[in-house]
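User: Can you recover a sequence for this backbone? Please restate the input before giving your answer.

Assistant: Of course. Working from this structure:
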């Protein structure tokens, strides 16, 4: 199983609510640059936070890759979601290659949990940073961080 974790692109500083913040033009560009690293990968699922900036990021990636299936929106990928719950929910996709599109602090904590088995060592993730993890199963401490690509 391969799991790619993508933090959304740069978003507006302000909106009516945090969940409604949209990508900036620079954020769209960052996302497309990160999406280029996913070309040719055998993704089966794109799973995203319901927040607007994550949905926009996931849709840009979906279009850039020519991915036929719809983005799967889940409530357990918001910024303050529990990384343990997110990792546990990945069990549903354990036989497939997955792209997760979400936010800090969740993405950094999720990577730290998957690789180190605890929440004390979060991975720094900039906007549109893309992490690649590899494992037989999505278990805490059982995944290998293959690489992290930061935009720019």
């Amino acid at each position: 199983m391969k799991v790619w974790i993508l933090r959304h692109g740069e978003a507006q500083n302000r909106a009516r609510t945090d969940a409604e913040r949209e990508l900036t033009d620079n954020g769209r560009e960052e996302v497309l640059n990160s999406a280029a690293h996913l070309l040719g990968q055998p993704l089966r699922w794109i799973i995203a936070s319901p927040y607007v900036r994550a949905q926009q990021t996931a849709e840009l990636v979906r279009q850039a890759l020519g991915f036929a299936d719809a983005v799967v929106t889940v409530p357990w990928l918001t910024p303050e979601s529990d990384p343990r719950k997110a990792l546990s929910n990945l069990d549903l996709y354990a036989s497939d290659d997955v792209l997760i599109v979400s936010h800090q602090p969740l993405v950094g904590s999720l990577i730290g949990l998957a690789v180190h088995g605890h929440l004390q060592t979060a991975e720094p993730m900039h906007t549109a940073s893309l992490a690649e993890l590899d494992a037989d199963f999505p278990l805490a401490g059982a995944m290998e961080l293959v690489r992290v690509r930061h935009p720019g």
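That completes the design. The chain has one domain: 2-149.
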